[in-house]
Every structure is written in structure tokens, then in C-alpha cells.
Amino acid sequence: MARIFIYDTTLRDGSQGEGISFSLQDKLNITRRLDEMGVDFIEGGYPLSNPKDFEYFQKVPSLGLKHAQVSAFGMTRRKGGDASDDTCIRALLQANTPIVTIVGKSWDLHVHEVIGTTLEENLAMIRDSIRYCKEQGRRVFYDAEHFFDGFAANPDYALATLKTAADAGAEWIIPCDTNGGTMPEEVSRVIGRIRKEVPGLLGIHCHNDCELAVANSLAAVVQGATQVQGTINGIGERCGNADLISAIGNLGLKLGHEVLFPGRMERLTELSRFVHETSNMNFRSNQPFVGQSAFAHKGGMHTHAVARLARSYEHIDPTLVGNERRILVSELSGRATIIQKTEKLDLGKDKALMGRILTRVQDLENEGYEFEAAEASFELLVQKEAGLYTPLFEKLVYRVNIEAGLDGHPITEATVKLKVGSDIMHTVSEGDGPVNALDGALRKALLPIYPRTGEIQLADYKVRVVNARAGTAAKVRVVIESRDQNSVWTTVGVSENIVEASWLALVDSIDYKWLKDKASSN
Questions:
Q1: Which of 214-218, 333-337, 467-471, 482-486 has the highest average model confidence (pLDDT)?
Q2: What are phi and psi of 273, to 5 degrees?
Q3: Fewest CB atoms within 10 Å of the CB: 269, 490, 495, 512?
């Protein structure tokens, strides 16, 4: 099959997503990762929009990229002006990138109502901008903004904008579904017509307002597009852009196209989580291909079938994208599920133990626990039931005190008393709240004997009322997501007291880290 070129706009279009703000160093780090993966083109930003994007273009040459080529993004010249002295065009060229991506209008509505000019002048704006940048030695990609809406309103004019761009020297023509409202069959039909009437290379740029950005991108490729634009994890304005993680997975594994460097498909999960972390967003558990739930199985019938023949319930081997199969433990689980979950401990032959574990899981879930999203707590449960668990410490007492400070803001202080071997550790810590204070006191007590406690980051904290009808006496379930430089794990605690539930989940988190580190050192 053909080579499909990947054009990443995470740093420009992705940064327009609500709540996302990349620092200069974030942008450089993401650029380096994309280059290592074999992404072909990286849109670094709009050099005229802010000082950070301008500085990015000054710094990016120092990365010494091995494969990816960086593009600066900008608009056509202004109406009635000259490309040679247009502020935007000048900024594009001063970015000194080998490629410039120029966006222009394809919808006659925008020509008349947004930029307020004639259809002929809009064509001249496209022509002059591309031609001038070509004369300055740049490769030019042309993004046809709102193309599919423009084609629906006035197909002849929309096609004329593409032909003008191609005649002016644009290397790649990229129709954009900017409003994200086009259906896949329409994308397919329109791309097929463009292929017949417009010379040159063709790409696709889709937004996800109808949850169709990836489907539309694939439809365009089937009709002959050879460049796919999008963002990692689909981040972007409104509902986001085409998710390049899913697009790459489908292009490479389903359609058989050449994408990325050989062997890099197995790092898709790693790349996805790196960008989630850099953009300060929680992982999306149900994200196709790379989410934690993408290959998770819960029902007893499913887990039994997966144990016999994985492909009976999985569309690909999860290792192909660097993910892993997860067998979820819940009250729906059967003995086969427990056996699978304890494979690495080689406990499956002990049927009595398997029965005890299943009974314990069901009893705890009846009390409000859920282990399907707290696998670290489940692994500790197994170790305890099997008699393999040796605690790092023993809790003697803890206390949390909250009082109003002189300025009216609450002051939270936690005291923890632990027994570690024959030593008694007694520590105090202040925090932003009871959980933060408890975490600080625990770390103070344990760091002298287990320094790697300092590697744990509490990434997420969730509270859910289990039996709401009990009112203020209801049980709560606390789920804590923790991570270190190598992995992510989740623990759970349940109690009528939210502090106690949090304590149980915190202790499990530290115990699991200790258990994991011991296993990796053996």
C-alpha cells in the first residue's frame, strides 16, 4: 500500500483546545517525540500570533530533527495588498521553516461576509501568497478552510480556489472540514471529484464536531489523499481534531499503509500518554487503541473467551500499539477471570485459593469496593489472600486536624504514627486538605527507609457516594490514580469516613509501589 504522510498540528490547532496551554519547552519536547516516531510534518504554530510561537521557530533548529520537517502556519495576504509586504506573509518567511502552510477561503459565504471582498480578489489572494512564498524558496501547503461547506454551497467556486492554489505552485492541497459537520460518504464523493479535476498531491484536515474526524480522514485516503492532518489525542478547539493516534492505528494496522518509522507503531500508547501528561489532561480510558479500557474485559463470558482465543473479543493484539490486555475484576467475574489475573504469580492451580479470592472480591464489592478500575488494590488483595504479602509498615495511629487560620482560611495538619520494623516513626505535615496532609506525613515517615516513595505522584483523586440514601452517614469510595516515571496504577478505599477511605487508598498506593519495585529488582 501507499505511504501516507502524517502532518501533526498539535502545537497549533491542538493548543486551541479549551484548557490547553503549552509552554515553549512543552512544544519543543513534543516536537522531539514526534520526530522520533517518524511523523513527517509538524506545524509549529502561527509566528505572528504570539511571542512564544515566534520563539519556538527560533529554537526548533537546535533540536537537530532527524526526519520531521517543521511548518509555519499563516493566512493569505490581506485583501487589496501585496504579498511581498504583507505582515503575515513576512512573519511566515521569517520563521525560516522549509515549509509554510497557508490557509485561505473556499466558501463564498466567508469571502463575502467574513473578509468582505470579491470572489476574484480572494482567488488573487490565494495565488499571490503561494506564488510569492514559492519564489522565496519555501515549499507551500495550502489548507482550504471550510472547503466542504463551501463545496456544498458553490462547488464550482470551491474547486476554483483549489485549482488556483495548485496552479500557483502549492505542493499539497488540503481540503478542510473546518466545522466538522460533513458525513464520510460526502467526504468520499468530494475527494473523488477533486482527484479528477485538481492536479497535485492531496491531503485532508478534519474536525470532530460530529465524532467523524477519523472516519472522514480515512474516507479521504481511500479516495486518494496521501497526507492526513490532525492532533495527538484529537485535542483542539470545540470538539477537537482528527485523533492522529486512531488515524495512524487504522491507516497502518487496518488499511496496511506505511506510516511512521518501522517499529514505532508499538510506541503509540507511550506517545498518547506523553501528550496527555504534557497538556495536563487526564488519560481518556476509553480512547481507541491506547486507552486503559481499550482492551479491558469484565464479564465472565468475555474473559473466559479471551483466555481461550484473544482475537475472539479483540480487533488487534494490544501489543501492536504498546497497550496491554486487562482483565477486570468485579462481582461479575468468574473463576477464569481470577485465574487469568493471577497468572504471573502462578497461583491458578490452587482452586481453593481462587475461590477465596473470588468470594473476597464479591464481599468487598457488596460493601462498595470496585476493583475493575483499581487493579493495584486487587493485586495487593491477591497477595494477602495467598499469604505472600509483607507490609512495608504498620499503622499505629493517624489524626487529621482542621482549624480556621487568622486570615479565615483553613489550616489542615495530619499526624501519622507508624511502625516500620522495630522503629516507630512519628511525623506531622500540613497540607492543602486532609488527603494532601496525610500524604505528606506518610512520605515524611517513609522516605528515610524507602526513598523511592518520593517518586510517587498523585495524579487523580475521585470520590463517589456508594449508598446515597444513607445521607451524611453514607459510605464513600475513594479512587486514587498514582504514577511514577514508568507506570500508572489505581487504588481504592471505602468507608463511611472520607478521610479513612482516602487513607486506605493512599496506603495501597504506596504498598503497590513498594511491591512493584521489589518485583523489578528480583
A1: 214-218
A2: -70, -30
A3: 495
User: Any long-range contacts for 162-167 (C-beta under 8 Å, 24+ apart)?
Assistant: 162/106, 162/194, 162/198, 163/197, 163/198, 164/123, 164/126, 164/127, 165/104, 165/126, 165/127, 165/130, 166/142, 166/198, 166/199, 166/200, 167/127
Residue 268, all three cell numbers: 503509540
pLDDT at residue 336 tops 80: no
Quote the cell numbers at residue 378. 486487587
Residue 332 has pLDDT above 50, yes or no: no
| Residue that has been written with the C-alpha cell 486507552 in this structure | 291
DSSP class of residue 433 equals: S
In angstroms, rounded to a whole number, what is the distance separating the alpha carbons of residues 66 and 35? 7
pLDDT grade, residue 483 (50/70/90)? Answer: confident
435-438 contacts at long range (C-beta below 8 A, 24 or more positions apart): 435/461, 435/499, 435/502, 435/506, 436/412, 437/400, 437/412, 437/413, 438/398, 438/400, 438/414, 438/499, 438/502, 438/503, 438/506
Q: Locate 87 and state its grid cell.
A: 505582515
Strand order, beta sheet including 394-404:
394-404, 410-420, 423-431
Pairwise CA distance, residues 146 & 176, whole Å? 6
Tell me which residue has cell 487589496.
80
